[in-house]
Amino acid sequence: MTREQLFEQIKAKRSFLCVGLDTDFLKIPPCIHAQYSGDEAIFEFNRAIIDATSPYAVAYKPNLAFYEAYASSGIHALHETCKYISSRYPDIFLIADAKRGDIGNTSDLYAKAFLDINSMVFDAVTLAPYMGRDTVEPFLKYKDKWAVILALTSNPSADDFETLPLANGKQLWQQVLETAKGWGCEPHGQSAGSTNEDRVMFVVGATRAETLAEVRRIVPDHFLLVPGVGAQGGSLAEVAKHGMNSTCGLLVNSSRGIIYASDGPDFAVAAAAEARKLRDQMADLLDKYL
Amino acid sequence: MTREQLFEQIKAKRSFLCVGLDTDFLKIPPCIHAQYSGDEAIFEFNRAIIDATSPYAVAYKPNLAFYEAYASSGIHALHETCKYISSRYPDIFLIADAKRGDIGNTSDLYAKAFLDINSMVFDAVTLAPYMGRDTVEPFLKYKDKWAVILALTSNPSADDFETLPLANGKQLWQQVLETAKGWGCEPHGQSAGSTNEDRVMFVVGATRAETLAEVRRIVPDHFLLVPGVGAQGGSLAEVAKHGMNSTCGLLVNSSRGIIYASDGPDFAVAAAAEARKLRDQMADLLDKYL
Prior knowledge:
about 15% strand, about 45% helix
């Protein structure tokens, strides 16, 4: 998906909501377990959540760990979920929250696993920057696909390394932004003509909304994937105030607050209500800042 | 597996060789493809390689990307491979080269996926340190299991971030070692009594053998996982000279040089010959330095 297509969808839905499909088998409501078992239960739960929330969401973000924990059965459910979204809701932006980070032919294979037309059809994959450019480049070779690079996260131990002061006066996460925004897309390949901003996003935690102004100083035009609204307690208004740019530039994720809003037979209705609440706030913020 | 058990095996086999199971479906020899298809071909290739090389290797390291690229079928082959190794060769140390790096309940689930007795039975998982301690702690809760943390890798873009000079005069990778060696194991849990050295290893690339002396200054007693001997061109003698400690402290990996030594019907014999060559060098180095 191109940046223009993503922005069009944001304007059409008045939303920059990403729903995190952190589907924990043990938290799937009893009414699903009563009808389905194994990977079918995971898929049917996802399908109900997606159908209910898709009017309010522009992106879905399955978290790979939740599927890998159920081995080949979980991976099968993930594939079915991706197929369902891309065929039924082709305008939705689909992010693999995988936080992969390897190099060379290994990184090529991760890119193939998530982006290749013959495997899963994600639009984007989250990546860890530790090993540098070699981790990210294979993902930039795929036409209209995105690398979503960890910059500043909101977990307590983000200060172990991400905020370390460097000799040049920057903190590590600032240097990650500075360096990664210079990584080129293929000059002659499938993605000829696209810029870094068309192919790279950054993860910035919402509990650090005040630092979003500094993020925007370094990467004014990039999209940011912002987790941490909802269960992790970030403020949507603060994120929009400091982080929104002229093409919105934000995808704000909520996972548990939406998908586990109820564990009764009304779980999908409850999920839709939570997603709609966020969408309504987002619509107001888009009116205010865009 | 405990550190003592690993060292016992190194002494018994006179080897610190780890064989990387980077099993590329397209490089599996025609004689395997003629008999097996899909995940069976991957598993049967691995089984032949393992049976042939196990006299010379103390560890195997499947690289997750190679299995994920074939979706649920690849994951099934990986499970079968793990089951085969742990039942047939229970003394072998089994590393998931997954380079995962997430936090909270996501990290818990990755640990469950790789270490839990009901899923895959790896002894260790490679992890990226970018998000800090939160990434690693869930893995330290499992009794006699290991976190293998990226420190200094040998890829060209390792200099993007890993070697950045910090304000405190260290480079980032040195700080990763300094910080991560202080991460504790559960004081009261399953792993009570084990130290950081009993549960944490570090990845240090072999093409930077001269820096191994500096690594040893910071972490004299830890095991190091050293990729890059073979296809990536590191020198085994240099690695041993600078990196070996009183319990060996090294697992040196070779992947393609062993598993793709031949693509003929003799592929397993050729793999054994390459593994044996490395084992013979390792036996000499253990005699020399230990």
